[in-house]
Design goal:
The structure is a homodimer. Chain A is built from seven helices and eleven strands. Chain A is α/β, with parallel strands linked by helices. In chain A, strand 3 and strand 4 form a beta hairpin. In chain A, helix 2 packs parallel to helix 4 and helix 2 runs parallel beside helix 7. The first copy, chain A, is elongated and about 60 Å long. The two termini of chain A are about 20 Å apart.
């Protein structure tokens, strides 16, 4: 079973019967993948709208045939406060975290984040956003998670509302159903973890430790393991 | 907090007061990482033995000072029947699955596995085993998971005992505590999933479908999401 290709058209408005101009990269990708005139596609604006459409004869537009309900979006909006590590690991964390349903990534320039890694992440925000967008298309969800520029933990916490969790070795697993709220935040430290000042800050903010099993997980593995516990609601 | 380096010495026997010759690659790695004579290391035989030791003056041996209890090993031994995909994804699945506590990976040449991918995985078993060994050291567990050569699903199933699960989109999450057994098997299909014949085989074998959320997960993400649900016992 091959799903119709998903095409991201940020800022577009979908109206049945009307044509939408595709971003050039998307049109080219469809052409290379041999989707010709009339081919069925699914349009996403990346912000919650989804529509079925057919490619125009020149492959540069798509004519909307029907609006579709959002899919792949968990009911709970989970923000990941992501301690910055090596760029490749941040990239994987964003890709995998998007697959697992994260609503937002707030990059954290943690005390133990290496400066070079923070600088790399800050200069590659557009790349990280593209990775999130590609993952949204691949995993068949509707909304592209936001990715915020690296900031210290205190500033990152200030951007977040809802119950706060922190991945901490040795802590107990989250009991399913324990989070009734529609938003939640989970902090995942960089390699070496958050430092004592940061842990204190998290404790002061009422962070509930959640365990990820009895082993030391890489950044990107920890993000997945935390999200699998926190996003336990069926996607709509 | 920096843990002492973990050093893998397959087949070694650890006895307090006796010296163990380190594999050349391990000795070189310690030297490059500036661990000198007398440095504290943790020796692993990869099969369940663990010992504290100190490097000898030439850095080629380590003298065992005490036997240590195993750590990082879940009580439940979970085998992953892993539908072969692109080599890079199989590598990540092995690395991440090892971090998450998998006991064994049985590679499955599934109906929808591409032949080239199966050939690549079969020819890179040693590389996959090295990746698992490195992950064991990194995540601070004790036993290196086995990795078995790709075989069709029926043959792979024949190698496994214990309750069988299959990752299937749309299925409900596993209820925590639902698996009382000390062994379990989880089948994760390749890109595109298992084909109808394979799904039938799994159903006949009594496989219980487990859901991984309402999105389409990549192979390596699915392995983590399944293991997080199946390995819910605290590591010893």
């Amino acid at each position: 079973m091959r799903l119709p290709p998903r095409v991201l058209v940020p800022g577009a408005r979908f109206t049945a019967g009307e044509a939408v101009t595709l971003p050039e990269a998307e049109a080219r990708h469809l052409e290379v993948s041999r989707f010709g005139p009339g081919a069925e596609v699914v349009l996403l604006d990346g912000a919650g709208s989804r529509a079925g459409a057919h490619l125009s004869s020149d492959g540069r537009k798509a004519v909307v045939c029907e609006l579709l309900p959002a899919r792949g979006e968990p009911l709970r909006r989970v923000t990941v406060l992501l301690g910055v590590g090596e760029l490749s690991r941040v990239e994987w964390a964003v890709e995998k975290g998007t697959e697992c349903g994260a609503a937002r990534f707030v990059l954290v320039a943690a005390a133990r984040s290496q400066r070079a890694h923070v600088a790399a992440a800050a200069s590659k925000l557009e790349r990280l956003r593209r990775i999130a967008a590609e993952a949204v298309k691949q995993c068949d969800r509707t909304v592209v998670p936001e990715i915020l520029v690296p900031s210290p933990l205190a500033a990152g916490l200030g951007l977040c509302g809802g119950p706060l969790f922190v991945a901490r070795p040795g802590a107990p697993r989250l009991v399913p159903g324990a989070v009734p709220d529609l938003t939640a935040v989970v902090a995942v430290g960089p390699e070496g973890g958050f430092d004592p000042d940061e842990e204190h800050l998290l404790d002061e903010a009422g962070a509930v430790p959640i365990g990820l099993g009895g082993r030391i997980l890489r950044l990107e593995t920890a993000v997945i393991a935390a999200l699998v516990q926190l996003i336990d609601d069926d996607a709509r």
